[in-house]
Amino acid sequence: MITCSRMVKVREYIEDPEAVLPDEGVAGEPFWVLMEVINGRNTGNYHSIGKKAGKYMVMLFPQKSMARWAAGELQAHSVDYAVRGVSALHLQCLLSLVEDGHPLELLVAAAGLDEQGKLQGVSMRPEQIRQLLEFPV
Q: pLDDT tens for residues 56-95?
């Protein structure tokens, strides 16, 4: 996960690492995510839905309502996470981190829940996300 202590790494991709610490005013264009917020400050930590093959799995939500639902479910276990928008610049940085071997796996939330009432997501490689969104390479 990206944490404030790892902002030096983020500087390799963008001039202003704070750009990947969205506040509540950033629109989810193209996604929404759950991030740790303590005392109103975004810490830079993403909510991970688990770890697979040594990588933190981070869920990207195409709809804010889906992210709000997930945040509501998470509040039963932790109150430190809030819905934040992922801007195009933010997403570009995330994709670059994954491509450079940072221990992240990005999943795009699917509509609806599985038979156990759990959120479903599809793991996507950076090139798949870029192609889907018609992002520049």
A: 999 999 999 889 888 888 877 777 889 999 988 888 888 9
Within 8 A by CB and 6+ apart from 64, the residues are 28, 32, 83, 85
Name the nearest CA neighbour of 26 among 68, 80, 67, 87. 87
What burial class does residue 46 get, using C-beta atoms within 10 Å of its C-beta: 0-12 exposed, 13-18 middle, 19+ buried? buried
- Strand, coil or helix: 10: helix
Alpha-carbon distance of 70 to 34, in angstroms, equals 8
Q: How far is 54 from 102, CA to CA, in rounded Å?
A: 10
The model's pTM is: 0.80
SS3 label, residue 23: coil
